[in-house]
Amino acid sequence: MTTESAAAAVRATVYGYPRQGRNRELKKAVEGYWKGRVSADALRETARDLRRTNWAQLADAGITEVPTGDFSYYDHVLDTTVMVGAIPARHRAAVETDALDGYFAMARGTQDVAPLEMTKWFDTNYHYLVPELGPDTVFTADSAQQVAALREALALGHTARPVLVGPVTYLLLAKPAPGVADDFEPLTLLDRLLPVYARVLADLKAAGAAWVQLDEPALVQDRTPAELNAAARTYRELGALTERPKLLVATYFDRLGDALPVLAKAPVEGLALDFTDAADANLRDLAAVGGLPGKRLVAGVVNGRNIWINDHQKSLATLGTLLGLAGSVDVAASCSLLHVPLDATAERDIDPQIRRWLAFARQKTTEITTLARGLAQGPGAITAELAANQADLASRATSPITHDPAVRARTAAITDADGRRAQPYAERAAAQRAHLRLPLLPTTTIGSFPQTDELRVARADLRAGRVDTAGYEERIKAEIREVIAFQEKTGIDVLVHGEPERNDMVQYFAERLTGYLATQHGWVQSYGTRYVRPPVLAGDISRPEPMTVRWTAYAQQQTAKPVKGMLTGPVTMLAWSFVRDDQPLGETARQVGLALRDEVADLEAAGTSVIQVDEPALRETLPLRADGHADYLAWATESFRLTTSGVRPDTQIHTHMCYAEFGDVLQAIDDLDADVISLEAARSHMQVAGELATAGYPREVGPGVWDIHSPRVPSAAEAAALLRKGLEAIPAERLWVNPDCGLKTRGWTETRTSLEHLVAAAREVRTETAATA
User: Fold this and answer.
1) DSSP class of residue 439?
2) Which of the chain's termini has less CB crowding within 10 Å, N or C?
3) Cα–Cα distance between 726 and 711 in angstroms, integer?
4) Looking only at Cα atoms, what is the longest distance across the chain?
5) What is the DSSP string of 225-285?
6) pLDDT tens by residue, 479-535
7) Active-site residue, from 158, 312, 709, 757
8) pTM of the predicted model, to two decimals?
9) Would you call 339 a catalytic residue per the annotation?
10) Rounded Cα–Cα distance for residues 677 and 662 (Å)
């Protein structure tokens, strides 16, 4: 095919679209189903309406090939587990009794059965359900969901492409099932899994699929020769099938690297690559392997993970280069648009000029189709769009919002001493023990308590003017008093104020720092029915006034026990925001760290003896390739220490992390130099405690004994068993007892009972430990 004919055949497509609906209809329907207020048929009808609305929006924008299979009630990796029949033994009866209830039991657990483990999807804030596999796993094909979605889209007149998690990525994301040896490698099951994918592909071809997309983002990570050989064999065997659609293997989030020549020579018809942050590397690597002659290349030139407008001139230059490297070139976002909000035009509270800098999912589809038209017909066909785009880019670059000389001068003046505690940990620990006088195995929570309907109504009333500020604050004070009283009665040792005034652990601070923009409708799925509104980090950051001191001090007035001050750390403030892309991330992190340092100083001055700076995103933001780790971890740990290093030795600094794989960042956890770290450990059965012990971690640790992302209430015996397992790795004088994460999403009934069980478990094991000392 000539370059001219390739350009004429340009298609516009996406890999996935936000699932929730304009008003989070999916969240409301699913949670209504869990509570018995919505029937299964009504839930399915809501899902069908959302899928059809998404396809219609994509088609109206000019997307010529829509995805199917990207929609999910909870998680697309869990959907893949159902598709390949890898149902854990403990969930099989529930799934066989009622497929929908069994599906949600795997996601959330029940009172009697634990859910699947949950962790982050690569370096995003999306959480997936981890497949559990073992030597006895038997895979069986169940393509009903994928076939039904495809037929639904085709019946509506759309050109549709089913999207599946690829077999190599699925196995690389899996873990050994409970009771299986930790050294079991799920990838050894590849020969069992490939016939199942072959069956699904045949079913999709029979249902009318011309193309099927197999997502293999795991191949952008550093992979061993054995793993690359597995990928080669996978696509050699799938490509050799006769009853299959054309195959598009999609990768994203980074450069494909060593896996590129493997996939380039595989007998598949297409390859999708990320040409945003990894553009230069993928272009260079693609040229080095001789391109993709005769094959379809889907070029992800529009950033699917961030919300800033595309640079059309830059993207067209990249696309023009690619025309000479592939049989055909199509235009797409770099990854699924699941990771961005739905529509920027809904943000009426953002200045219209600034809003023109933003591209949410609907705006990105317009960018994709504009670029496809420019590639097919030449830049002259989009002259007006190019001019408007360049004007908007220039407006952002020259805006006073993006540059504050005082902030830049302060960051430039940072010294090494600013990021180091004055005393070594051993001296600090002795001072803190003397000051806090805590028992062995002290109990605490992570920070938030249930966000009740009454609290949400109070915030809505304040926004609507139905209650004045004084009335609203009285409601907050009443909630704090209730939370403190409950913790006192239950016997918790280090208390929290419960964060009733906070809407979200990042948004709350973003609304009080300069340089941030808050959205009203920018919802993004974090996991299941949990949606967040990541703020937009648009300019230089500073703190005009204290943000948390008043409420923490009020809580401390209600009790003689220590109350933790609660802050969100600089890395998480970046990771869970849409961060600016016009300066290095490390520079932005330093700005946030200095703003938070001011808050820490004010908390300490107000009498707060324990301050927790949460960094749950430290691991998730780790670059996917090892060659980027050192630089990232250097600025990430530095920004945390900038936040926390100005305190006295007897002020105890805590941090918290959850739902991630910590093995790659154990040295960084040590480098944070926090006095106490709490981590998720319940779903992973105390794995992290052993990892920390093996690494020689010298400080205090609180591995969670209650999985708060499940509605089930753990018994005191269960919590005690986990605590004893923790004691096998961490000595009692350095072990804390706490839940996995904050309690914002839980109800008060389960919270009361679970915390009572947690305290009872701590007391029981404390007595055992004292008796054997």
Assistant:
1) P
2) C
3) 23
4) 83
5) HHHHHHHHHHHHHHHT-SS--EEEEE--SS--TTHHHHHHTSS-SEEEEE-STTHHHHHHH
6) 999 999 999 999 999 999 999 999 889 999 999 999 999 899 999 999 999 999 999
7) 709
8) 0.89
9) no
10) 12
